[in-house]
Amino acid sequence: MSVHVHVRLNDGYAVTEDGQLLERSSCHCGASWETTYQVDEGEPESI
Ligand SMILES: [Zn+2]
After folding, report:
1. Looking at the whole model, is its pTM more than 0.85?
2. Which domain of life is it from (predicted)?
3. Rounded to an integer, what distance in angstroms lies between the CA atom of residue 15 and that of residue 33?
4. What is the SS3 assignment for 1-47?
5. 29-34 long-range CB contacts below 8 Å, 24 or more apart?
6. Quick count: other Cβ atoms within 10 Å of Cβ 16?
7. How far is the CA of 23 from the centre of ligand 1 (A)?
């Protein structure tokens, strides 16, 4: 049987209350991820 390999499709970005950059992504199978990036220095690029 083939093994499903998740494909991360970008669902957009958001900023958490802590000022972290939150990246949402999901696979067509329904799985989803939320990855946060610590933004301590500088300002994130405007989205
Ligand atoms: Zn998947």
Report:
1. no
2. Bacteria
3. 15
4. CCCCCCCCEEEEEEECCCCCEEEEEECCCCCEEEEEECCCCCCCCCC
5. 29/4, 31/6, 33/8
6. 12
7. 17
Q: Render pLDDT for 1-47 as a digit per residue (tens, 0 to 9).
A: 689 999 999 999 999 998 899 999 999 999 999 999 887 766 666 76
In one-letter notation, the amino acid at residue 38 is: Q
In the reported structure, the alpha carbon of residue 42 is separated from the centroid of ligand 1 by a whole-number distance in angstroms of 34
Output the CA 3–ligand 1 centroid distance in Å.
10
Domains of the chain, residue spans:
1-40
- Rounded Cα distance between 20 and 32, Å, is 19
